[in-house]
Amino acid sequence: SQTIHQWPATLVQPVGSPLSLECTVEGTSNPNLYWYRQAAGRGLQLLFYSVGIGQISSEVPQNLSASRPQDRQFILSSKKLLLSDSGFYLCAWSPMRLFSTEAFFGQGTRLTVV
Amino acid sequence: TQLLEQSPQFLSIQEGENLTVYCNSSSVFSSLQWYRQEPGEGPVLLVTVVTGGEVKKLKRLTFQFGDARKDSSLHITAAQPGDTGLYLCAGGRGGSNYKLTFGKGTLLTVNP
Question: Closest Cα partner for A99 from B51, B44, B35, B63?
């Protein structure tokens, strides 16, 4: 069966510090990978998605970047965090299907920038 | 631009009551999913609907996809405290478009 691991679960970082959140998927190959941010327990904002190694699409201009160095690894980074980067970050994967795009999520990372 | 509107935003009911929440859009989707999310965790997929007019049942939950594939509803019969959570709908366009568009969710509280 497929599993997705996301870490850390909680992170407190000072303003101006770097960020690296990692996500890995097991039990599948060539998944679509996504990073979402969720504010105040509400809707999900798509930040980045990737359909293959080295292929990253950015949805929202911001202080963050993403990379996919391996097929099942997705990394969210920042060189200098802002207070506004605080939030709940979710990694997700979906299988390559023609007519449906079902997402399977990690447990999330609660980031607090202080 | 918010492509998926969910209503109501908040719903608080007593155990045993029935409820319906809605997901509406002006756009056509090739598939629509419903997720439930508990505090501090990632959303969990409940169901996917792909055919206009499709109805799927998952125990006490009934999901319907609109005929025009622009809207969906989730009906819960005899709600229980364990149904409490944030219910999110998400639409996919299919084909080479792998993005999911999420609504803002309905926060359901079922009181014992």
Answer: B51
- For B77, the token pair is 């019969």
Handedness of CA A58, B25, B16, A42 (dihedral sign): positive
Residues of A with Cβ-Cβ distance to B41 under 8 angstroms? 107-108
Contacts 24+ apart (CB under 8 A), A56-60: A59/B99
Angle at A35 (CA atoms; ends B63, A62), nearest 5 degrees: 125
- Quote the pLDDT of residue B57: 96
Chain B CB contacts of A100 below 8 Å: 30-31, 33, 48, 50, 92, 94
Question: With the C-alpha atoms ordered A39, A41, A47, A53, is the resulting torsion angle positive or negative?
Answer: positive
pLDDT at A110 over 90: yes
- pLDDT one-digit tens code per residue, A2-54: 899 999 999 999 999 999 999 999 999 889 999 999 987 678 999 999 989 99
First to last CA, chain A: 38
Chain B interface includes A1 (CB < 8 A): no
C-alpha A109/C-alpha B18 separation (Å) is: 34
Question: Per the CB < 8 Å rule, is A44 touching B102?
Answer: yes
